[in-house]
Amino acid sequence: MGLGKDSIRIAVCDDEEQFRIILKSAIETYYRKNKHTVEISVFESGEELLRMGNRVFEFDCIFLDVVMGEIGGISTAQKIRKLSSEITIVFISAILNTWNKGYEVGAFRYIIKDPKTFRALLTECLDSLTKKFFSDIPMIKIETKNGEKTVPIRNIIYLESKGHILVYHICYDGIWSELYSRNKLNKCEKDFLEYGFVRLHQSFLVNSNYIINVKNYRVTILGNSIELPISKKRYGTVKNAIMLARDDF
To answer: 12 and 41 in contact (C-beta within 8 Å)?
Structure first.
């Protein structure tokens, strides 16, 4: 685990070889001009991409053609979402009438293959993607069994220790997910303290910005849906952390 991000990993999935070449080249050119490192993998079908299984976690963003072979882009995206809510998905299509399907899988952009507008739309998409992944937002790299994942620290709600396994509970736009890493809470606690995290007891480290109540040696986070215990010796420290995070505590 470590702080920072120096590259973005992108998958291009399209059944037209010439378009795959054009799109890959355009993305590489964009990031070269903007002095960022990009790693691009290409796939000629949704089936080929899905054969990666959990290894799709390797990608920060996937560009998906909507109309492809037996498994189209929409179906491919739905299957990817069952594995991960985090991967950014961009749809590429020659038709307009399926754009609304993109919302069902939380698509980042829907780009039409129109020669008149494609380059401008792609550039806007990559500009936004760059701000998302290379901004000054603090990020942390987490080593998982499926490879290294880079996550905005502000999206980590809490960390849970389960023996030698550390569970990162993460939320993006209301969608929860978990990342598992072979690590100990004591070893990584100091990395999070400066970002407003507070240790409740030996098993939990919580982002104080998401705590809404402290009562009876328990904290409530994200509404009333989750409660976590506080050890007696840490109770005062937790209350002080909340006072700093929220003026109205």
So the answer is: yes
Q: Which long-range contacts (CB under 8 A, 24 or more apart) does 212-217 make?
A: 214/238, 214/239, 214/242
Architecture, CATH, for domain 2-134: 3-Layer(aba) Sandwich (3.40)
DSSP for residue 108? S
What DSSP assignment string belongs to 127-158? HHHHHHHHSSS-EEEEEETTEEEEEEGGGEEE
Query: For 107-161, what is each residue's pLDDT tens digit?
Result: 888 898 888 899 999 999 999 998 888 776 788 888 888 888 888 888 899 999 9
Third-level CATH fold of 153-245: OB fold (Dihydrolipoamide Acetyltransferase, E2P) (2.40.50)
For 50-69, the pLDDT digits (tens) are: 999 888 888 989 999 998 88
Domain ranges of the chain: 2-134, 153-245
Q: What is the pTM of this model?
A: 0.58
DSSP string of 20-85, one letter each residue: HHHHHHHHHHHHHHTT-EEEEEEESSHHHHHTTGGGGGG-SEEEEESS-SSS-HHHHHHHHHHH-S
Q: What is the pLDDT of residue 224?
A: 55
